[in-house]
Amino acid sequence: MTTWLITGASSGLGASLARAVLEQGDNAVITARNTDHLTEITDAYPENALAVSLEVADHDQVVAAVTAATERFGAVDVLVNNAGHGYRAAVEEAATDEVDELFATNFFGPVDLIKEVLPQMRARRAGTIVNVSSIGAPRSNPASGYYTATKTALEGMSDALNREVGPLGIRVMVLEPGAFRTDFSGRSLKQSRTVIDDYADTAGKRRKENDTTHGTQPGDPDRAARVIIDTVEADEAPFRLLMGSDAVQIVRDELQGRIDEIDAWADVSRTTDFTQEDDS
After folding, report:
1. pTM of the predicted structure, to 2 decimals
2. How many structural domains comprise the chain?
């Protein structure tokens, strides 16, 4: 029986994944800052679900969560770093404390959890780490610079980690969701206290009070949960998995644009190499 540790399980994708995991008979350690938000799930699956209070930016709570999971179920087979939140601000508008909190939650928290589960995964030569990123990593938008930075950092770390632990039998996956019908653009979305009028036509259009996309996103978190489980359980899996038709289109267009730019400037790029004249 597989044991999953899923952060940010009180709503959205995390809650959908927790339910789907438990419905198929696996164990699930589900976390949230307030475990009262998890009682509906744990009451439905008292034998297989364990709710743990977790602020991912708190190292002591991270250690306690992994310890509780191990004591209850013996091991963590799959870690899903799903907890996190959005943040909207023009680069100039953001306050240092807001950005520090964002990185603590979206990047350093997941890293801390990974470091806590890796010793047992290395000992077993088995395990899967799933890091929930965003299509914001390959392509950023106005007002999303700092949020994108956290996800780009998460993906860069995950890429190196995958190459480090792959030979040890441990799999690392990065999920890049498009827009899903969750609380991400609602309750979970934060923004800068400062507003600079000069950015009204760029970053300003994407502030919460001007964003009308909440509740209309194309992505279905229940369908996404099933895809995550099927992919984790498959013999082969991609390192990066796009989620949603919007994600496929947006990232494909972005990457094609990058290739076109590389080709257009390749001759200039090559001029930075040493030449025979330089070596003589």
Report:
1. 0.93
2. 1
Per the domain annotation, does 210 fall within a domain? yes
| Plot region of 206 (φ>0 → left; ψ -120 to 50 → alpha; else → beta) | alpha
For helices 109-124 and 59-73, what crossing angle results, to 10°? 30
**CA separation for the pair 27, 65 (Å, rounded):** 14
The residue behind tokens 């800052």 is 33
Active site residue 151: yes
Q: Taking the alpha carbons of 25, 29, 30, 35 in that order, is the dihedral positive or negative?
A: positive
238-266 pLDDT, tens digit each: 999 999 999 999 999 999 999 999 999 99
192 carries an active-site annotation: no
Q: Which of 87, 147, 185, 192 is catalytic?
A: 147
Tokens of residue 163, six digits: 């190459």
Q: Which residues does residue 78 pair with via DSSP β-bridges, in sequence order?
A: 4, 128
Domain enclosing residue 168, as ranges: 3-247
